[in-house]
Design a protein that fits this description.
This protein has six helices and 27 strands. By secondary structure, the chain is of the alpha+beta class. Helix 3 runs parallel beside helix 6.
């Protein structure tokens, strides 16, 4: 039986980044950049004003007071025609280029405009003005030739805005991954059906498909495969058209746990079966010529935890995200907690940011079938194997769920 780390290593060793395609910038949200992006400009492209006010020579207002002749006005999108000389000022708007000869800006709130003998004057009364005041120099944000975005970056709105600034109207990104989701079991009924004796609704399909979409992939819901070789084989063949196939249930040691043998019959090669963790021990992982396959445990929290740890790793790897493996954070326990278990456990928790740092509270969880408790959680706490009383404020490892609330 593999450890979690060994299982993650096995996944990353057989899953390679997927194919690349070009898409318009407007369609790139959530995609993963396949090539680094270098800047073709300085940003800002010129020294510019951060305020509405007056461009001045700092030496003219070194004491904080001055009376200067206004020789021009420049707005954003314009360039001053005159070079500023001693005793002069140019009225300037936010975002406009700093005129030649000026090296500071005085905000308009600290000025008063006067008309004297057909001249426009500005009276300044402020703190002593220093070089560079209320302006930003060319190239402060980035210089031409700088690498501003590495390959492997998932694109959020701010990345898209930066890429637009750089004129990147089409982007090279990793192709979106398609994930088939197949629930198995004679006990399952559709979510719009009233369960009869011994039946339960097919909640895993909805949950796993949502986890797929939250990961930036495309979910293809394949319905329910019954516990018989013919139906299971047909649904597996359909699912193997996807980049990844997720099966929920049928991977334990029961008489009707038929998934491993049917996967083998469909040409899927087992990489590992069973991982030393709780919940999720029966996890199955394999590959075929064109697909990656996970056999997830049927209990919903087991499926959810295995997705977060293992399936998400495969998705990140296919999408070219680096690192692909989970990146836990550290938080202090909000309360004392007694843990008992012979396997490392990923326990649902509520992670919150407090003034003194992140705090996490274990929720009232009743095991791998208790999906209700996970609605109160936004993360999972990693408790290593072994009985231990954890003290409040003790540091623990926490894995955040995608889109945690």
């Amino acid at each position: 039986m593999l450890t979690v780390v060994e299982a993650l290593d096995a996944i990353t060793s057989v899953v390679a980044p997927g194919p690349v395609e070009s898409v318009p910038l407007a369609e790139a949200l959530g995609r993963v950049l396949a090539e680094r992006v270098d800047s073709d400009i300085d940003s800002p492209p010129f020294d510019k004003s951060l305020m509405d006010g007056f461009a001045v020579r700092a030496t003219d207002v070194a004491t904080g007071t001055a009376r200067l002749v206004v020789v021009e006005e420049v707005t954003a999108g314009e360039v001053a025609e005159k070079s500023l000389e001693t005793g002069q000022a140019i009225q300037i708007m936010t975002g406009a280029p700093i005129p030649d000869g000026a090296d500071a800006v005085v905000r308009i709130e600290d000025t008063e405009v006067e008309i004297d003998q057909q001249q426009t004057l500005v009276r300044i009364d402020t703190r002593p003005v220093t070089t560079g005041q209320d302006m930003i120099q060319q190239g402060t944000s980035m210089r031409r030739g700088d690498t501003v975005m590495p390959a492997g970056r998932r694109l959020r709105p701010q990345e898209l805005g930066l890429l637009a600034e750089l004129g990147q109207h089409t982007l090279s990104v990793h192709r979106q991954v398609t994930v088939g989701v197949l629930a198995t079991g004679d006990e399952l009924v559709a979510i719009d059906r009233q369960p009869q004796a011994g039946q339960i609704r097919n909640s895993n399909e909805s949950m796993l498909a949502a986890q797929v979409r939250a990961s930036g992939a495309v979910a293809r819901e394949l319905g329910i495969a019954r516990d018989n070789p013919e139906d299971l084989a047909a649904k597996i063949r359909e699912g193997l058209d996807c980049d990844i196939l997720l099966l929920s249930g049928g991977v334990s040691a029961g008489r009707l746990d038929l998934v491993p043998e049917q996967l083998e019959a469909a040409g899927v090669t087992e990489v590992f079966h069973k991982v030393k963790l709780k919940p999720g021990k029966p996890l199955w992982f394999g590959t075929s010529k064109d697909a990656i396959v996970f056999g997830l445990p049927g209990n919903p929290v087991s499926s959810m935890v295995c997705f977060e740890l293992f399936v998400r790793t495969a998705l990140r790897r296919l999408a070219g995200t680096d690192p692909a493996t989970p990146c836990p954070t550290a938080a202090r326990l909000a309360c004392d907690f007694e843990f008992r278990g012979d396997r490392p456990t990923y326990f649902p928790g509520r992670l919150e940011n407090q003034p003194d740092g992140p705090r996490v509270t274990p929720v009232n969880w009743h095991g791998s079938s208790d999906l209700r408790s996970t609605a109160d959680a936004n993360s999972m706490i990693h408790f290593p194997a072994g009985n231990q009383l954890y003290q409040a404020r003790q540091w623990v490892e926490v894995h955040e769920w995608a889109g945690r609330a």
